[in-house]
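Lab manual, section 2.4: Encoding a predicted structure.

Procedure: take the sequence of the chain (130 residues), apply the prediction step described in section 2.3, and record the output as structure tokens. A sample record is shown.
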Amino acid sequence: MNEEIRDLLGEEIKEEIQNLSTLEPGSKEKSTAIEDLAKLYRLRIEELKNDGDLSEKYYSRECEEQLKKDQLDEQIKDRYFRLGLEAAGIILPMIFYAAWMKRGFRFEETGTYTSTTFRGLFNRFKPTKK
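Recorded output:
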């Protein structure tokens, strides 16, 4: 619909320009026709400005949506990365402690903690953050 109006406005401007040549120079009819032509041309310019504004708004909205989507993707990646680091921060020390406890218990088969190394490590075998 907007394209039809633009075409009709262009045709009307062409007709007004063609009609100007048939009018007598300096007559009141010609000056009225020139004023009408100027009004039509101003309408045409406003229509082009509006189209430009609409396309600019659409483009900026599209860029803004893409930026928001990219930020959301980055936040999701960051969240998973942090979750992985926290999980590794809990699981890796537990694996380490389990391995050392197994070695220590194998070493301490007598039932007493005689080695000072294992006794010192045993106090630190707590899977918590420090």
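Check your result against the sample. The chain has a mean pLDDT of 79.
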